[in-house]
From TrEMBL:
The keyword Iron applies. Its cofactor is Zn(2+); Fe(3+). Catalyzes the hydrolytic cleavage of the carbon-nitrogen bond in imidazolone-5-propanoate to yield N-formimidoyl-L-glutamate. It is the third step in the universal histidine degradation pathway. Fe(3+) binds at H66, H68, H224, D298. Belongs to the metallo-dependent hydrolases superfamily. HutI family. GO terms for cellular component: cytoplasm. Pfam families: Amidohydro_1. This is Imidazolonepropionase. The lineage of its organism: Bacteria, Bacillati, Actinomycetota, Actinomycetes, Micrococcales. 4-imidazolone-5-propanoate binds at R75, Y133, H160, Q227, T303. InterPro entries: Amidohydro-rel, HutI, Metal-dep_hydrolase_composite, Metal_Hydrolase. It catalyses: 4-imidazolone-5-propanoate + H2O = N-formimidoyl-L-glutamate.
Length: 380
């Protein structure tokens, strides 16, 4: 067994209730990739290896619980049109489906690896990856197989949209039958785009049928909900015990109350609103009600082509009315809870030694210096 001391930490955020906030002039020891000691540098123990960060701040590695990283092509033209006033409806997903179906495994693998590396270069150490750009049995299975090469947090999203020209009932039967049977062994989670306001997504009854079938197949549940307008997504997620409901832009008081009394995390994706000129969700309303909130990038080619969790933190502070501390917690511990993980998102004893090292004196610079690459991942 080998131990590794990280010292010279100007500020250390641990999310450990033993400490009253961040530690100054701190050190950390990991043994075989697990945190075994945290405290003041003046009391640091000996270790087999040593890294001195020279006063840099350290926070838990970012946990990104919502991405769509396995795809081909881009939708820059769609983005340009939205900036000129064209509203987002979800219809452009079909463009990515066509490109993805035509791509080889090697092409998809190269893009996926590049995006994961890009995320790590900005401090992300745990990442969820969805399928959803296949919408047929063979391609959905292929996308999950590739996603499993880079993460254990794989999500089956055959219920992304109904393919053009396909009967809705027939497609739901495909998703809950042969597609689920092929994909469940490759996934930890199942997700559905529950959005009655979109003509291509799924209504509440369709989403329920898909989620119940996925749960029966042994998958955990996630929901895209209440993004484009009011809808049943939040209530359905809470009722079925989903780990998270993502977007949460249009919420009734009953939705907020349901989330506050549940174990379902509200995952907010401010990069989507930035990239679609849409209203931002009201994080302050959720937090004040006691709802658990996470942040994620939703990195995808259509509505947010960014892997940057620091950017999401900056947007959360500027546009969602979160404090920097709240946004950082949502991007780390909140994301871990959205994935129902207790080994990441914090730096308590027994956690994975996944760090985000900041080229800055403290964590406030994540929002203070938006767009500047001050964070990088360090896994011991």
């Amino acid at each position: 067994m080998t131990s590794h001391l990280v010292t010279g930490i100007g500020e250390l955020v641990t999310h450990d209730p033993r400490f009253d906030g961040p530690l100054r002039d701190a050190a950390l020891v990991a043994q075989d990739g697990v945190v075994v000691w945290v405290g003041p540098a003046s009391a640091q123990p000996a270790a087999d290896a040593r890294t001195d960060l020279g006063g840099a701040a350290v926070v838990p590695g970012f946990v990104d619980p919502h991405t769509h990283l396995v795809f081909a092509g881009d939708r820059a033209a769609e983005f340009e049109a939205r900036m000129a006033g064209t509203p987002y409806t979800g219809g452009g997903i079909a463009t990515t489906v066509a490109a993805t179906r035509a791509a080889s495994d090697d092409d998809l693998r190269r893009r996926l690896a590049a995006l994961v590396a890009e995320a790590r270069a900005q401090g992300t150490t745990t990442i969820e990856v969805k399928s959803g750009y296949g919408l047929d049995v063979g391609t959905e299975e292929r996308l999950l197989r590739l996603a499993g090469e880079v993460t254990t947090e794989t999500t089956f999203l055959g219920a992304h949209v109904v393919p053009p020209g396909t009967d809705r009932a027939d497609y739901v039967a495909l998703v809950t039958g042969p597609m689920l049977a092929a994909c469940a062994p490759l996934a930890r989670w199942a997700d559905v785009f529950c959005e009655p306001a979109s003509r291509v997504a799924f209504d509440g009854d369709e989403a329920r049928e898909i989620l119940v079938a996925a749960r029966s197949a042994g998958l955990g549940l996630r929901v895209h909900g209440n993004q484009l307008g009011p809808g049943p997504g939040v209530q359905l997620a809470v009722e079925l015990g989903a780990a998270s409901v993502d977007h949460c832009t249009y919420l009734a008081d009953a939705d907020v109350d349901a989330l506050a009394g549940s174990g379902t995390v509200a995952t907010l994706l401010p990069g989507v609103e930035f990239s679609t000129r849409s209203p931002y969700p009201d994080a302050r309303r959720l937090l004040d009600a006691g709802v658990e909130v996470a942040l994620a990038t939703d990195c995808n080619p259509g509505t947010c082509f960014s892997t940057s969790m620091p950017l999401m933190i900056a947007l959360a502070v500027r546009e969602l009315r979160m404090t920097v501390a709240e946004a950082l917690r949502a991007a780390t511990l909140g994301g871990a809870h959205a994935l129902r993980r207790d080994d990441v998102g914090h730096l308590r004893l027994g956690a994975r030694a996944d760090l985000a090292v900041l080229d800055a004196p403290d964590h406030r610079h994540l929002a203070y210096r938006p767009g500047v690459p001050i964070a990088r991942a360090l896994s011991l």
